[in-house]
Amino acid sequence: MTRPISLRPSSARDVAGTDRSWPFRLPLPSSKRIAAAVLLVSAIPVTALAQAFPGAVGYGKGADGWRGGRVLSVINTAPEGPGSFRACAEATGPRVCLVRVGGTVVLDRPIRVRSNVYIAGQTAPGDGLQIRLDGQGATPLVIKNAQDVLVRFLKVRPGPTDTPNANVDAVTVENSQRVYLDHMSLSFATDETFNIHASRGLTADITLARSLLSFSLDRSSHPKGRHSKGALVCSFDATATGCGRITLWRNLFVHHRDRMPDVKASAVGPVEVVNNVFYNPISQFGEYYNLMGDTRIAHLFNVALPGPSTKADPPPAVEVFMLGSEPLALRAPGNLSYGGPCFTDPGVRVLGPTARSKRDPSVPLSQGLPILPAADVVRAVVPMAGDHLHRDTLDIRALDDLRDCTGKVIDQVSQVGGWPALPTAAPDPDSDGDGLPDAWEAAHPGLSIDTPDDPWANDPTTGLPFIESYLSMLAGDLPALR
Q1: Region (Disordered): which ranges (predicted)?
Q2: Engineered SS bond to 193: which of 107, 189, 353, 384, CB 3.0-4.6 Å?
Q3: What phi, psi does 466 have (nearest 5°)?
């Protein structure tokens, strides 16, 4: 019997935020080749952006329109109504949603997240907050026609629908700008696990970071049949005006048929796929297309690992499909792709033949994006992926599968024990209802547990507003991840 490793954050972290308890090591190719790739990346031009929270990265890091707004609380797991997750997510105006309840929210229709919100799942007690469907509806969490949306430390696991449905992702972002999704645990989708879609408006400035995308359902309720998919970036229809400036950074993909990821883009800006780990597809890892417009993709220092479900001849980590007349440029140094039983052969080709012909060192990166050499990526990414503050049995299973080179792409949630039973839990006391728990206020001179304080007043110890200091302390942002 394998003993699970400790998957909560360790107090002893290196500068990359890595939990040193992670034991996984991979054989590596020539260190000279890795070093040369790192030097090449340093010459790539960058694009400047602001920052939503300490350590925010990528094109979505300017998602800060919630600052100075109301501080609201999610206090029950009802599908709607006062105090529900839906009520806060669908409210208007700048706001912070403190998740002050643990457990599972069961939905019969999607939640439409509106602009200018910080959904702070790190405040959830117990084992965190999980969102799922009741067999009806579509994608449970939809960010559409919105700006400045920040969602952190949340589990979204829809599950199959009672009748065929082609639109059940875990999370969809559509026609939105300045969106940041961080430490998300996304599972049990029957379409893409994560989808960025462009239709009638601009879709740009989006980051998906440090998230765990696992166990999408293959032979399930999608009308096309087999449809276990990872991430689809810049799907579009004829009315789309553009899609680009998108970051996928330090995410872990486990057990999807393909789309690890599937990327398109337009002249709006590039898509960067940096320091991700992809494990156990059936047929494909990365698939990149020129169908939308001038497509520029930076695929840097990622790790592709076949598994028990992967076909006998592992595919390249990146394949390019030229199906239109638009140009495509690919920057792809420093990646690792493995073959052999349980990742014993590090010499598998990274780029397919068309991908090799489209290499271009001029594809830019967002400003200040931290980049690790691929040799360090697994140990940095895996312990921190997903809602690691509330690590539950499903996420632990995904991590154990990677560590042990086990598991498979599934058809039904019952194959992995179903949805974790997350108990409801009481939040930390907040006597004055200002959003700052009593214990935290007691540790900060000048704050009162009896009289509401201004959560947006400056915290002299961090230079942030008090509410942001509290949220960043819980999330592990201080000191900022570099």
Answers
A1: 418-461
A2: 189
A3: -55, -40
Same domain, 350 and 213: yes
Measured CA to CA, the distance from residue 301 to residue 469 in angstroms comes to: 32
Select from 304, 318, 326, 302 the least CA-distant residue to 359.
318
User: Cα separation of 431 and 409, whole Å?
Assistant: 47
Sign of the CA dihedral with 199 first, then 200, 201, and 202 last: positive
The domain boundary, picked from 409, 424, 452, lies at: 409
Range of the structural domain that residue 461 is part of: 438-475
Tell me how crowded residue 11 is: count the other CB atoms within 10 A of its CB.
6
**The pair of three-digit structure tokens given for residue 54, joined into one six-digit string:** 């300490």
Structure token digits, residue 139: 């994608």
Q: Domain for residue 32, yes or no?
A: no
pTM above 0.85, yes or no: yes
Q: What is the pLDDT of residues 196-231, one digit of tens each?
A: 999 988 999 999 999 999 999 987 655 575 758 899
Question: Rounded to the nearest 5°, which phi and psi values hold at 377?
Answer: -70, -45
CB neighbours of 381 closer than 8 A, spacing ≥ 6?
A: 210, 250, 251, 252, 275, 276, 277
Number of domains in the chain: 2
Percent of the chain beyond pLDDT 70?
87
Any domain includes 61: no
Same domain, 397 and 458: no
